[in-house]
Design brief:
The chain is built from 12 helices and 8 strands. It is α/β, with parallel strands linked by helices. It folds into 2 domains: about 170 residues, Nitrogenase molybdenum iron protein domain (Rossmann fold); about 120 residues, Nitrogenase molybdenum iron protein domain (Rossmann fold, 3-Layer(aba) Sandwich). Helix 2 crosses helix 6, helix 6 runs antiparallel to helix 7 and helix 7 packs parallel to helix 12. The protein is globular, with a radius of gyration of 20 Å.
C-alpha cells in the first residue's frame, strides 16, 4: 500500500505509565489499546482486515486490537509506538500478514516477554517461504488462505480458552460457509467471464481476479512502478493507456488508496473509453466486516463485467 501522499506515521511514545489509563476496545478494527476486557483473549492483528476475521471467529470471547486501522498508515513503513508494544505484550494471540508486508509486528513480538501464539497468513497460505517480492502479499483477497487462517485462529483460541472451544469451532464453521458462498460467486463469474482481459494499477486484487479466471494484461513494469511508488517510464505509461482504446480490455480494477498523476491517468483513460473502473482498497471500509467488504467487491466486479 504505497502512497504518494504523506503518511501519518507515529513517533515512538515514551511513558508506559501514561498508557495504563488508556481504554480498551473489543472491536475487530480497534486501534492499539493494551489489555482488553477481563475474561477475554487479547488478540492483536497487524491490519484491520485480519482483525475483522479474528473477531468473527472469537466473538465475545476475544478483544481484538488492530494496529493498522487507518488508510493513512502504510504497513510497509509503519513505525510502532509504545501503545502498540503494550498491546502486543498483553496479547495471547498475534496475527500478522507476513510476506514482508508488516515486519513491524515481528519486531514487537520479539520485544514481548509473553511469547504469544503468532499466526502469519503468508506462512499459513504456503507462500511464506518465497523471497519477498516474489509473491503477492495481499493474502486477504485469496479466500482459501483466509479460510485456513480462520481455522487456525479457532485452534489457537481453543488452546487459550478451552471452555469456549466449541464456540470458536462453531464460529469458524459459520465463517467458512460464508467464504464458500463467496467462492461459489467467483466460480459463477468464471463460468461467464473466464479469459476476459482486464487491467490493474497494483497487484492488490489479483488473487480475486485470478479466481474469476480474468486475464490481467497490464504491463508488469507499470504495476510494479505504481506499487513501489516510483515513476512509470513514458513508454510503459503509453503502452498501458493504449489498452483502453478499441475495446481491448473490459475492466480496470484500481487501488483507491493510491494517488498520483499516473494512476489517475489510467483511471481517466478507462472511463473516457467506456471501460468500467472498479476501486478496491487494502484496509476495511469504515463500519464493514471482512465478509461484507468482499461481498461488495465481488458484486462490483460482477456488475462491471456484465
Amino acid at each position: 500500500m504505497n502512497r504518494s501522499r504523506p503518511l501519518a506515521l507515529v513517533a515512538l511514545v515514551a511513558g508506559a505509565l501514561a498508557l495504563a489509563g488508556c481504554s480498551s476496545s473489543a472491536s475487530g478494527a480497534s486501534g492499539a489499546s493494551g489489555e482488553g476486557k477481563p475474561g477475554t483473549i487479547d488478540v492483536v492483528a497487524s491490519i484491520d482486515v485480519w482483525g475483522s476475521v479474528a473477531k468473527a471467529i472469537g466473538g465475545d470471547h476475544v478483544t481484538v486490537t488492530s494496529i493498522i486501522d487507518d488508510p493513512d498508515k502504510d504497513p510497509h513503513d509503519y513505525q510502532a509506538n509504545a501503545r502498540d508494544q503494550l498491546a502486543v505484550s498483553d496479547a495471547r494471540v498475534v496475527i500478522a500478514n507476513g510476506g514482508g508486508y508488516d515486519d513491524f509486528v515481528t519486531k514487537m513480538v520479539k520485544a514481548s516477554k509473553r511469547n504469544p501464539t503468532v499466526l502469519s497468513a503468508a506462512s499459513i497460505s504456503g507462500d511464506g517461504g518465497h523471497p519477498i517480492g516474489d509473491v503477492n502479499e495481499h493474502f486477504w483477497y485469496d479466500f482459501p488462505t483466509v479460510q485456513k487462517v480462520a481455522d487456525r485462529l479457532a485452534g489457537a483460541y481453543a488452546k487459550a480458552d478451552t471452555k469456549d472451544a466449541a464456540d470458536f469451532r462453531a464460529n469458524a464453521r459459520a465463517f467458512d460457509a460464508k467464504l464458500a458462498a463467496l467462492e461459489a460467486t467467483e466460480a459463477q463469474l468464471k463460468t461467464a467471464h473466464a479469459g476476459t482481459a482486464v487491467t490493474i494499477t497494483e497487484p492488490v486484487p489479483l488473487y480475486l481476479l485470478d479466481a474469476i479466471g480474468l486475464r490481467n494484461v497490464t504491463p508488469e513494469k507499470f504495476s510494479e512502478a505504481i506499487e513501489n511508488d516510483t515513476d512509470v517510464a513514458p513508454a510503459v505509461l503509453k503502452q498501458t493507456l493504449d489498452l483502453y482504446r478499441g475495446g481491448r480490455v473490459k475492466l480496470l480494477v484500481y487501488n483507491a488508496q493510491t494517488s498520483g498523476p499516473q494512476t489517475q491517468a489510467v483511471v481517466d483513460a478507462a472511463r473516457k473509453n467506456g471501460v468500467a473502473a472498479v476501486p478496491v482498497t487494502e484496509t476495511l471500509p469504515p463500519g464493514e466486516t471482512y465478509l461484507e467488504w468482499m461481498t461488495a467487491n465481488l458484486d462490483a466486479i460482477g456488475k462491471a463485467l456484465s
